[in-house]
Amino acid sequence: MHQRWAGTVAEDALRRAAQTLVEVSADGLAVVDGAGRFAGLNHSGAALLGAAPEDLLGRPAPFARHPGPDRVLHTATWTAPGGRAQDLEYRILPLPDGGHAVWFRDVTTVRRQQRRLTAIARAASRVAEAYSLPVTLEAVAQEIVRTANIAAVQILSVEDPSAELRILGMAGFGTAPDFVARLSACRRRGAHVRFLDAFLSGEPVVDLRRKPLIMSDPAWAPLKEIMDRPDWDAFVSMPMSVRGRTVGVINAYYRPGEDPCPDSLAFLEAMADQAAVAIDMAALLAQTRTQAQSDERRRLARDLHDSVVQQLFSMRMQAKALRRRLDRADAVGVRGAVEELAELSAGALADLRLLVFELRPLDLAEHGLVAAIEAHAASLRARTGLAIEVHAEADVHIGGGLDFQEDLYRITSEALHNVVKHANATTVEVSIAAETPDLVVQVRDDGASASQSPDRTRERLGLLSMRERTERWGGHFEAGPSADRGWVVRAAVPLLDGEYPP
């Protein structure tokens, strides 16, 4: 009897000690029943989940049951009552009654910091590798949105706050090609544009209740439909500064309940630094290219004067001498003059071909046909808002030299020009593929048909130019309405090895 009583006292003491340990633990400890609902929870765990223990009992738990070792760490996502998304790390252990015991902790901050560091690294890599500014900053915008607590992003270049702005990257708003025009309309109506405050001051602007203010202000009417697309509440405008001057801003729109914390602001500042470097590099590259182009023009002018102009002058003098000899019926002299004239014209033609060869698109000569088309598409995408996708088979072989590639590039750029000018399209797909025995370049849009836009068939000069370039290589050219909607331009040229015919 005494021994049983002593044993009961000891067991009660152990239970009380265990209960105390559970309650004082800083980590979350929970019991989940066989139906996957909370059956018990310590106060630390309830606090981690953002509610009182009694409010969580009976609610579905986020912890999935996994076969395998008990020590393996798993991850789950939990949405707190306030709407904040949390990343949880947990271990789960089966209990005899069919339920499970769970240890868990909140790793949201750690995970987000890891995602932010990864995004910064990827953005830095983009800045270092890409040679197209819109492509680079579009990727930076996408990286920012991937950090989970930010619903949408804009990257804007600002040179003069009173002038029209330029969007270099945007994510989370869907297709909005007229965003700048709508924003200008809002400014004319007197809307208070907070990101201009960030640009002028060079300091971040944080507004925790920005969306309700915009949606209730009549001055923002032209933009309300676009601004209401993402689910957001708080707003941060982070200035982009480089070499002592502010070149633009990054606007971040935070999901409800995800107020910008110091870590998030530090992340935005790092991304703004990367974007500013990209803009500065693009400006320096443009200056370098302008100087290089100026130097190249001067060199070409010298070459034209030293070779072609001198030869053409000699040809003119020979033609005059030939006319005099014809007047005197000097057959021997005429033959010699004709031969010399032929040699001079051949030399002039060769020199002209060499100079024209040097005037090809820079991207084409440096990076090849696919990269040149992608750069041109990115430029049009940034300027017009048109969604242009370029698809090229990874193993397609594009031979034939620069003459051949330049004609395919000109066909594609002319087709895209016609889409922008006449089609009223929203999307364009450019494909480059080998369809034995041809290499096929195709531009397909979802715009107006010929009956809706007669100018599509009246653009005879552009169509004739594309057809001539295709047929120059023994190819076949087609342009006309698509089977479902829009317009298709298709150039198919023989896929041959080695050099194509002159």
> Into which percentage range does the β-strand content fall?
15-25%
Name the overall outline. elongated
Main beta-sheet strand count, sense and barrel state:
5 strands, antiparallel
- The side-by-side strand order for the widest beta sheet comes to 2-1-5-4-3
Structural class: alpha+beta
Number of helices: 16
Number of strands: 15
CATH fold type of the largest domain: Beta-Lactamase
Q: How many structural domains?
A: 4
- Low-confidence runs of at least 5 consecutive residues: 498-502
**CATH superfamily heading of the largest domain:** GAF domain
Query: According to CATH, what is the class of the largest domain?
Result: Alpha Beta
Residue-averaged pLDDT: 79
Which secondary structure elements does this structure contain, and how are they paired or packed?
Elements: H1 2-24, E1 28-32, E2 38-41, H2 43-48, H3 53-56, E3 74-79, E4 85-94, E5 100-106, H4 108-129, H5 133-145, E6 150-157, E7 166-171, H6 179-188, H7 194-201, E8 205-207, H8 210-216, H9 224-227, E9 235-242, E10 245-254, H10 262-327, H11 331-357, H12 362-367, H13 369-384, E11 387-392, H14 401-423, E12 427-435, E13 438-445, H15 455-458, H16 460-471, E14 476-481, E15 487-494
Parallel strand pairs: 11-12
Antiparallel strand pairs: 1-2, 1-5, 3-4, 4-5, 6-7, 6-10, 8-9, 9-10, 12-13, 13-15, 14-15
Helix pairs in contact: 4-5, 4-10, 5-10, 10-11, 13-14, 14-16
